[in-house]
Design goal:
The chain has 3 domains: 4-36 and 494-580, Immunoglobulin-like, CATH 2.60.40.1180; 38-135 and 222-483, TIM Barrel (Alpha-Beta Barrel), CATH 3.20.20; 142-194, Oligo-1,6-glucosidase, domain 2. Helices cover 28% and strands 18% of the residues. Helix 14 (407-418) runs antiparallel to helix 15. The structure holds alpha-D-glucopyranose and calcium ion. Residues 54, 56, 58, 60, 62 line the site of calcium ion (CA).
Length: 582
């Protein structure tokens, strides 16, 4: 999403901090290696509640709708649901603008229903991750309502205020990720407040210990309800130093997370995953090395931004280049091989649909969606599935930007059109990368409104729901859904998928992503054709003439690796290697 500027702005990371934690830090390789925590072999399913399932027919998805679909998720086999925000919110950014962290938005349901969701999920061995959005609040949060009343209000310091320049203009040139200045003038008190997202999402001042304590208290309140952990929204921004123009990876970031860990989830058996657009593999290690006591893992976006223009960002898409992609994934697999942990994903509520971006949403939709799933689920790390991905949902082409119902797309559309970009060019960017692509309502069946709602959905539905929907997928043993089911099951059965070493194969090949995983004498080879063409392969010497067990495939079982392989369009398979072929 975010402007290049923010990615690049990284403060110096010192390793000195590592040694300052008394007995906690150990250099023993043993202790640094992946432990047996439950989340290492978990598969996580992300729900965007507005668009998942609407139980009461008002057009907006809700908690009761989610409860009604838990059996479906159990059938899929996932262990964790990451719930995008369901807290009370004016919905300026669809819930990523929270006005009460300890209550549920009425359109989603009640706290009692949330407790029921946690309990009903637990009965099916599914845990719930809450979305922790604490870089900012809503402007309707009582803290902000107080803060803007006067300069000496006790809550003033919960946010970031600066005086105007002498000519009355904003304190500096920093930009919001949703377009425009990051500073908004507040007439009552004559100062500007800082917001990295919409002006209705004022940034919290994490330098204020009271803010930290309030957030810790709130987190413990949720943990006491038995949740499975947190997904932490833009968490790499909380250590910011606005006066030095540093937003991501600020100097206070890692100490803040260590304090949060100690005060809240550290002693509990939960999963934490940070959203960190600015993470490099080395930075991800700082977050996820167990001895540092920060987070379980982070989401990195280096593979995602490869299809964005380096200067212009997501609105000027760039073609996918498999060799670049393999370089990035290989690097992350390698750097986090023994210390730290990867999260694995193709898409989420902020990104386009995987099959549209990396596969072929037309002729080879089914083959390519399965291929993408296989390519990702055999990597080392914890896989995330975004709602609808498991049935191969695709991007949409709406005529008007308004139909995308997204603060970011709208904000940037206005800003860029004003700067002279043509409507057509901007719409192409939106078709490729708007967050709205992922947010159209879930397709449950071929009935009106895709079985999502009895009423008029809050957002237009993708017209292809009659063909692409859950009911059809459940009925068809060859569906993408059943392919995901197999992948999830395999991860539980084969420790090599969770813990094995990663070795890239055919590294220079422009169309094939292949790799091997190995743990003791368990060895799995995974081969994926990322193109719609036939590919002739010559296998390297150590892979020739081996037979094994076909674990998963999209064109029928493959049990043997010969010397030469012909791959069908988007063909993909994994073989557990055994003995040399007779
Ligand atoms: C994260 C969320 C995104 C939201 C933003 C501001 O990037 O994933 O949806 O708009 O943070 O909270
Ligand atoms: Ca509803």
């Amino acid at each position: 999403m975010y402007s290049r500027r923010n990615f690049l702005k990284t403060a110096a990371i010192t390793t000195a901090g590592l040694f300052l934690q008394g007995g906690l830090y150990t250099t023993s390789a043993q202790a640094a290696q992946a432990g047996p925590e439950w989340w290492r072999n978990a598969v996580i399913y992300q729900i965007y509640p507005r668009s998942f399932a609407d139980a009461n027919g008002d057009g907006t998805g809700d908690l009761a709708g989610i409860i009604g679909k838990l059996d479906y998720l159990q059938t899929l086999g996932i262990n964790v649901i990451w719930l995008s925000p369901v807290f009370r919110s004016p919905m300026d950014d669809n819930g990523y603008d929270i006005s009460d962290y300890c209550d549920i938005a009425p359109e989603f349901g009640t706290l009692a229903e949330m407790e029921m969701l946690i309990a009903e999920a637990a009965r099916r061995d599914i845990r719930i991750l809450m979305d922790l959005v604490v870089n900012h609040t809503s402007d309707e949060h009582p803290w902000f309502i107080e803060a803007r009343k006067s300069r000496d209000n006790p809550y003033r310091d919960y946010y970031i205020w600066r005086a105007p320049r002498t000519d009355g203009s904003a304190p500096d040139e920093q930009r919001s990720n949703f377009g425009g200045s990051a500073w908004e003038f507040d007439a009552t008190t004559g100062e500007y407040y800082f917001h990295l997202f919409s002006k209705r999402q004022p940034d919290l001042n994490w330098a204020n210990p009271q803010v930290q304590q309030e957030v810790h208290r709130m987190m413990n309140w949720w943990l006491d309800k038995g949740i499975g952990g947190f997904r932490m929204d833009v968490i790499d921004l909380i250590g910011k130093d606005v006066d030095r123009g540093i937003t991501s990876n600020g100097p206070r970031l890692h100490p803040l997370l260590q304090e949060m860990n100690a005060a809240t989830f550290g002693a509990r058996d939960v999963l934490t995953v940070g959203e960190t657009w600015s993470a490099t593999p080395e930075i991800a290690k700082l977050y996820s090395e167990p001895a540092r006591r920060e987070l379980s893992m982070v989401f990195q976006f280096e593979h995602i931004t490869l299809t964005w223009d380096p200067q212009d960002g997501k609105w000027t898409p760039r073609a996918f280049d498999l060799r670049e992609f393999k370089g990035v994934i290989g690097k992350w697999q390698k750097v986090l091989a023994d210390i730290g942990w990867n999260s694995l994903f193709w898409n989420n509520h902020d990104l386009p649909r995987a099959v549209s971006k990396y596969g072929d949403p037309g002729r080879y939709r089914i083959e390519s969606a399965k291929m993408l799933a296989t390519a990702l689920h055999f990597l080392k790390g914890t896989p995330y599935i975004y709602q609808g991905e498991e049935i191969g949902m695709t991007n949409v082409r709406f005529e008007s930007v308004e139909d995308y119902q997204d603060a970011e797309s709208l904000g940037l559309y206005r800003e860029r059109i004003a700067a002279g970009v043509s409507h057509e060019a901007m719409m192409e960017g939106i078709y490729a990368n708007s967050r709205g692509n992922a947010r159209t309502p879930m397709h449950w069946d071929a009935s009106e409104h895709a079985g999502f709602s009895h009423g008029k959905p809050w957002m237009k539905i993708n017209p292809n729901y009659r063909e692409i929907n859950v009911a059809a997928a459940l009925d068809d043993p060859g569906s993408i859904f059943h392919h995901y089911r197999t992948l999830i099951r395999l991860r539980k059965e084969y420790p090599v998928i969770v813990y094995g070493d990663y070795r890239p194969l055919l590294d220079a090949h422009p169309q094939v992503f292949a790799y091997e995983r190995q743990l003791g004498d368990q060895r799995i080879v995974v081969i994926n054709n990322f193109s719609g063409q036939l590919v002739e392969l010559e296998l390297p010497a150590d892979l020739r003439d081996l037979a094994g067990e076909s674990l998963v495939s999209n064109y029928g079982p493959r049990n043997v690796l010969g010397r030469h392989l012909t791959l069908q369009p988007y063909e993909s398979f994994a073989i557990a290697l055994g003995t040399p072929a007779a």
